[in-house]
Amino acid sequence: MDVDPARVPPGQYVTRDFPVLSAGPTPHTPLDEWSFTINGAVDEPVSWPWEEFIALPRETVTADIHCVTKWSKLDTTWTGVSVDTLLAGVETDAGYVTAWCDGGYTTNLPLEDLIGGKAWIAYEYGGEPLEPEHGGPARLLVPHLYFWKSAKWVRGLELRDHDEPGFWETYGYHNYGDPWKEQRYTGD
Q1: Hey, which residues does 77 pair with through a beta bridge?
Q2: d(C-alpha 137, C-alpha 5), whole Å
Q3: What are phi and psi of 129, to 5 degrees?
């Protein structure tokens, strides 16, 4: 595979596969029971059931993704709703976000890493509905950070005035996760 090395962070290798890594069983939430919520440090929580969510303005993005286990997959194509669209009209002074998911998974991010065209709630991969093993029906997509920050089975964003480590971060993963700085584990 002929790859521009400038696209691959240090310590990563490129794969054509899309490895599946999960800490527990794969949730299978029926779409009529699915909703997406923004709550926490907001004036008014907002929520969208599935049909309303997929009717929001959508974007298709092509991005390279990088897993903390050292694989990178280039030119992945996702369709979903920009976090900017979801936060339009939401009043908050929050600086941090906890993404929460079916199955109890959480991950933490600075709010600035989710806005300005940097993050989406993706529900299609490669033009097809996102498969449950890859986080479907919807996952957070934050391609500039290690892929564990792109939480599978996402159901909402809790806006916070302080940072609180998520699932993997409490088990020793780096709090931020920049692949270009090899921020895999606490202390990196």
Answers
A1: 62
A2: 33
A3: -55, 140
Take residue 93 and report the two structure tokens written for it: 């002074």
Q: How many CB atoms lie within 10 A of CB 10?
A: 9
Residue 38 has pLDDT above 90, yes or no: yes
Closest CA relative to residue 79, chosen from 116, 119, 126: 126
Residues 6+ apart with CB under 8 A from 88: none
pLDDT at position 2, please? Answer: 78
DSSP 49-77: EHHHHHTS--EEEEEEEE-TTSEEEEEEE
Q: Which helix (H) or strand (E) is 86 found in, with range? A: helix 83-87
| R_g of the chain, CA atoms, integer Å | 16
Q: Which residue has the tokens 């929001």?
A: 56
Neighbouring CB atoms inside 10 A of 78's CB total 23
More confident residue, 10 or 23: 10
Q: Which amino acid is at 126?
A: G
Q: pTM score, two decimals?
A: 0.94
